[in-house]
Amino acid sequence: MPRFRKKLAGAAAVAALCLLGAGTSASAPAAAAASSLQWVALGDSYTAGAIPAAGDTFEYPRDGCQRTTESYPEIIRRDFGSLVHLRNVSCGSATIANVYREEQTPTGYELHIPGLIDQSDPDYPFAPVPPQIDALSPSTDLVSVGVGGNSLGFGELLGKCIELGPTGSVGSSPCKDHFEAGMPARLETVRREYDQMLTAIHAKAPFAKVITVGYPTVIPDDPANCLYSNPLQFSTTRHADLNWLRESALEPLNAIIQQVTAAHGDRYVDIYSSSKGHSVCAPGQEKWTEGILQRLQPPTWALVHPNARGHANAAAQVEDAILGG
């Protein structure tokens, strides 16, 4: 039986004994801690949570990474209880390089977008945090990692689409015209760095099971369902540019993560398929990802990030991958 399966079985056995009353003995907590699956969660804001719609930040003193209570690692932590011991070092705005080789200076919720939102974080500026891979060791049993969007520059792409939208007309795609020629190079950079990251993760945690987590559906198959100039959705991004972002940026990004993961013999978690129909432009409770803003009054930023419902779906998919051995 592989080490991962033995450790998971051992943790389950300890949890069962505690439920039967062994938890009342002095040795039970120590036994549970020793048998718990040692899990490290790496990633960007889609892992950390980052936005108010994904819960409250919970770490004090704050480091500016904006990990929230309803993010999928924290949901799984609660669901699995003593089966896992989680070290969550995910961080908003992290790139692939921040995961495996470069320190990061977090921004907290300091955010200034001219004409849209001006929000200051009283704890800003924050001290740099080390590369997330520093949390790994040979005793790590499980690594989950969700990253890549910032290395692709999705926030930059979307910001420019919003800026250029008013310069176009119905049916035009000014953002595609601006970025299309450089997109293959961006995607190739993601592929190269993702491969280097997984190589580094396996070197640092040689006995760990590694799970990679893709990105959810944020743009619907039919962007006509999105309202132009609605900041609760994609603001002034043109419908044709939403199609381009989905087909030429987000879907290829997920494909690269899946392909590189398979090349390393690791497990890819597909969040995209299960979140179809729950994009930024879905109605009411069907929306699993917020738009540029979560609400208008008071203006509350979301910058196209999953809410608690989106993280609950991600948690279910990642739990299946963990239990799948």
Can you walk through the features of this model?
The protein has helices spanning 3-19, 27-35, 45-48, 72-80, 96-100, 149-152, 154-164, 174-179, 183-204, 239-263, 308-323, and strands spanning 37-43, 84-88, 111-113, 117-119, 142-146, 209-213, 267-269, 293-295, 300-301. The strands form three sheets. Strands 2-1-5-6-7 form a five-stranded parallel β-sheet, sandwiched between helices. A two-stranded antiparallel sheet has the order 3-4. A two-stranded antiparallel sheet has the order 8-9. The chain has one domain (36-323): SGNH hydrolase (Rossmann fold, 3-Layer(aba) Sandwich), CATH 3.40.50. It is globular. Helix 1 (3-19) packs antiparallel against helix 2 (27-35), helix 4 (72-80) packs across helix 11 and helix 9 packs parallel to helix 10. Helices cover 39% and strands 11% of the residues. The protein is α/β, with parallel strands linked by helices. The chain has eleven helices and nine strands. The N and C termini lie close together (10 Å). The longest helix has 25 residues, at 239-263.
